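Narrative of activities, Objective 1.

The group set out to show that a structural description can be obtained from nothing but a protein's sequence at a throughput compatible with the screening campaign. Below is one input-output pair from the validation batch, recorded exactly as produced.
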Amino acid sequence: MSRYVTMAAWADVPHLTEEIKNEIRGSIPPYQIDAVERGWPILGSGAIYPLAEDSVKVQDFPLPAEWPRAYGMDVGWDWTVAAFFAHDPAANLYYLYAAYVQGKQEPSSHAAAIRTFGPWIPGVIDPAANGRSQKDGMQLLRVYRDLGLNVTMARNSVEGGILKVYQMLHSGALKVFASVKPFFEEFRQYRRDMNGNVVKKYDHVLDGLRYWCLSGMDLMKSRHLATPAERKSNYELPPGAWMI
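Output recorded for this entry:
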């Protein structure tokens, strides 16, 4: 027996009146409205960040050069991710403005791509190195440092990191550029299982966010501190990489 699954938005069911739509909106939590109205797959009670997507999303805008920046890096063979953040000191707001997402490449390829965002930008890296031992993680840290990345080990308190990220998203202190699509794809699926454990799938950008939130905020650095050599870049992304 074959099966076919499709998504349907309210625009696909024109018989729904505004009265019915408003009644439905009033009967569900705000973070589930996108799933109902737009047909996007999203989680129910198991969602780790039960927030409406539009409450954390902002339209892209040019970042002032003087705003401090940093990134959180999740590493592994299947996927290596660097999530990039900027700080607006005047408003004390933080923005996830870009992400590098690429799988099945050597560290040299990842490092070269990450440097194109600005070699002067400091980063924090997954201390477990995708489930490996702390010793292996330290070895990988040295590899990336030797390849020119300014990275240090991140703290890896899962529940503490999740709580801090949630507090920042809920309070509005952290916003995400609309173009960072991998974040929103993971955000919709990030959940706990029946036993309350975090489901370790489709969470690479969110892990990078958690590392930055725990360990990278105090390391953020402004572009004016970069040397002329650090501003140079001639790297071309490998096929299949996602980067803005």
